[in-house]
Amino acid sequence: MSENKARPRISVRLMVMVAILTAMQIVLSRHLSYAVWNQKIGFAFVPVMLAGALFGPLAGALVGGISDLVGAILFPIGAYFPGFTLTAALTGAVFGWLLHKRQSLWRVCAAVLFNQLVLGLVVNSFWISVLYGSPYLGLLGSRLIQYAIMVPVEIVVTWVLLRALEPVKKQFGRTL
Predict the structure, then answer these.
(1) 112, β-bridge pairs
(2) Confidence band (pLDDT; 50, 70, 90) for 4?
(3) Which of 174, 154, 157, 166 is nearest to 55 (CA)?
(4) What are the angstrom distances between the C-alpha of 165 and each of 37, 49, 90, 168, 172?
(5) Contact call for residues 53 and 100 (beta carbons, < 8 A)
(6) Please, are residues 13 and 175 in contact by the beta-carbon 8 Å criterion?
(7) What's the sign of the alpha-carbon dihedral 150, 155, 160, 163?
């Protein structure tokens, strides 16, 4: 009899936490964000960041991707476009790669800057350009205000939340 210790086990607790964070992200994104056709300001990044930081890149990607897909089906804002779902999943994965197990202010800044500037500004602007036929460079310029606001907000909120969760992580140990 050989034990299969190489295969990770997915716990019910992890599945429930991913589901709760997915639901939170849908509510924050679809109902509690300021949004116009090419800009969105809000705190919908929080559940995706928490999933990645607490449970790793796969959980972050699942929360980001599933919440975008389910949110688009249940509460459509415009036409569904799979590029946004890909970007949302990558956002969660980046939070997981940079913040799971090792958290520092530098890593928080790197995760937020990559997600906001590369995935948000560059990639999502490209998706909007493809979807609506808008000039790409014009979109970049009009969306800069959103990112100038959200980068510092996201860095501060992420850092504060991760510091506030330290006692919880120590209390629960490996279960989180």
Answers:
(1) none
(2) low
(3) 174
(4) 34, 13, 23, 5, 11
(5) yes
(6) yes
(7) positive
CATH classification number, 12-175, choose in 1.10.260.40, 2.102.30.10, 1.10.1760.20, 3.40.50.150: 1.10.1760.20
Q: Are 61 and 90 in contact (CB under 8 A)?
A: yes
The answer to pTM > 0.90 is no
In single-letter form, the type of residue at position 158 comes to T
> Using H for helix, E for strand and C for coil, what is the string for the chain?
CCCCCCCCCCCHHHHHHHHHHHHHHHHHHHCCCEEECCEEECCCHHHHHHHHHHHCHHHHHHHHHHHHHHHHHHCCCCCCCHHHHHHHHHHHHHHHHHHCCCCCHHHHHHHHHHHHHHHHHHHHHHHHHHHHCCCHHHHHHHHHHHHHHHHHHHHHHHHHHHHHCHHHHHHHHHHC
Q: What is the pLDDT of residue 22?
A: 97
**How many residues in total does the chain contain?**
176
Please check whether residue 60 is in contact with residue 51, taking contact to mean a CB–CB distance below 8 angstroms.
yes
Weakest mean pLDDT among 15-29, 38-52, 75-89: 38-52
